[in-house]
Design goal:
167 residues, five-stranded antiparallel β-sheet, alpha+beta, 22% strand, 5 helices
Length: 167
């Protein structure tokens, strides 16, 4: 799927198993699909903090809200960066520990020079590798969990070395 004409959505769904963050993408000629799913105890907290920062910088628009579903459309230029950030924190022991770095990496990029390129590449690498090693049919997302875990681990090492982050 080419990057042009894509639209990105960040969704929080509350399910019987707990809250789930979904990063969704759609293109003009294709229906919307979920690229990344991230659950866990702190998924709702992480989502709220991300939305707060993105709203502050006017990078999202609210689409729909209900008791069990909240959806926001991301600006196209920031979509791949947010997706890459979710790849980065996806398999962290404590993903909420990465939240203080969100604004600096995704929005401002002053302290973390090159973060936009790095995070965008994390998402595109995950997409390319998932074409070679597709997810099992029972997985309800486009990107392979094995690929996401591997890319996440590799990019965490890069981020720690580049910007001396101790997580």
């Amino acid at each position: 799927m080419s990057q042009e004409g894509r639209s990105y959505r960040l969704v929080l769904r509350k399910t019987a198993r707990g809250p789930v963050i979904q990063f969704r993408v759609s293109a003009p000629d294709m229906r919307e699909s979920t690229l990344i799913r991230m659950g866990g105890k702190k998924a709702s907290e992480i989502f709220d903090q991300m939305i707060e920062v993105l709203k502050k910088h006017e990078m999202i628009t609210e689409e729909s809200t209900s008791e069990n579903y909240r959806a926001y459309r991301l600006k196209p230029e920031i979509g791949p960066v947010v997706g890459g950030y979710l790849v980065l924190i996806r398999r962290s022991r404590d993903p909420s520990a990465w939240i203080p770095y969100f604004e600096g990496m995704v929005v401002e990029e002053e302290r973390f020079k090159g973060a936009h390129a790095l995070l965008s590449h994390a998402l595109s690498l995950s997409e390319e590798l998932s074409k070679i090693n597709p997810p099992p049919e029972r997985v309800r997302m486009q990107l392979s969990p094995k690929v996401l875990d591997s890319v996440s681990a590799g990019f965490k090492a890069i981020v720690r070395k580049l910007w001396s982050i101790r997580k």
